[in-house]
Design a protein that fits this description.
mainly alpha
């Protein structure tokens, strides 16, 4: 099991829902040359499924998911860059 998962912070019940939703929604992102953001339609469908149907609840949910997604994508881009740099060190000039 990844160390980061084992060291998962205790958010409490309200933010646990957001954390779990983020990881569920992450499987909906497009994959091409790199990972794309979680689509709005996926966030909207998830919110509807779980009863976040008033605008204020949806806006808060969406903002939290998108904030997590931005940070996740930054981390993944940094990882990819480090991997590219490490790969270039191994290639002969």
């Amino acid at each position: 099991m990844p160390q980061g998962y084992l060291e998962r912070p205790d958010f409490g019940p309200s933010l646990d829902f957001i954390w779990d939703a983020f990881w569920i929604l992450s499987s909906d992102r497009s994959l091409g040359m790199s990972e794309g953001p979680i689509p709005f339609a996926s966030i909207d469908r998830f919110a509807q499924r779980y009863g976040l149907d008033d605008l204020a609840s949806f806006d808060e949910f969406s903002a939290l998911i998108r904030g997590l997604d931005r940070e996740y994508l930054k981390i993944r881009a940094d990882q990819a860059e480090r991997e590219r740099e490490a790969g270039n060190k191994d290639k002969p000039v």
